[in-house]
Amino acid sequence: MSQTRVERRLADVGSRLKRLRADLAVAEEQCLHFDDLADDARLRALVSETPAMERQHRDAARQAQTMAKHRARLQEEITALEQTQDDLLDRFYSDA
C-alpha cells in the first residue's frame, strides 16, 4: 500500500474515531439517564404493585438495556478502529 493511501486511510480512521467517541459520550449520558428512569420505575412498581406500573418498569428497563447495548457496540467499533489505526501506523512507519 502506498504512503499516500495509508495517510488517507489514517485520516479517515481518525475522523471516524472522533465521531464515534463523540457518539459514545452521548450514549454514556443517555445510559445514565435511562438507568435512573428504570430505577425510578422499579421503585414505583414495587410500591404500587399494579400491572400498569410493572409494565412501565419493564419498558424502562428495556430502554436502558437497549441503550447499554448501543453503547457497547460503539465501544467495540472504537476498539476495532483503534486496532486498524495501529496497523496503519505500523505500515506507515515500516514503509518510511
Question: Key features?
Answer:
single chain, 96 residues, mainly alpha, 95% helix
List strands and helices in order, with pairings:
Layout: H1 3-48, H2 51-95
Describe this structure in words.
This protein is mostly helical and 96 residues long. It has one domain (3-95). The protein contains two helices and no strands. It has helices spanning 3-48, 51-95. α1 packs antiparallel against α2. The N and C termini lie close together (12 Å).
Radius of gyration: 21 Å
Portion in strands? under 5%
Overall tally of domains: 1
- Outline the biggest β-sheet: none
Weakly predicted, low-confidence segments: none
Topology, number of strands: 0
Query: How far apart lie the N and C ends?
Result: 12 Å
| General form | rod-shaped
The helix tally amounts to 2
SSE sequence, one letter per element: HH
Helix content: over 70%
Overall pLDDT confidence: 94
Structural class: mainly alpha
Outline:
With 96 residues, the chain is an all-alpha fold. The chain has one domain. It has helices at 3-48, 51-95.
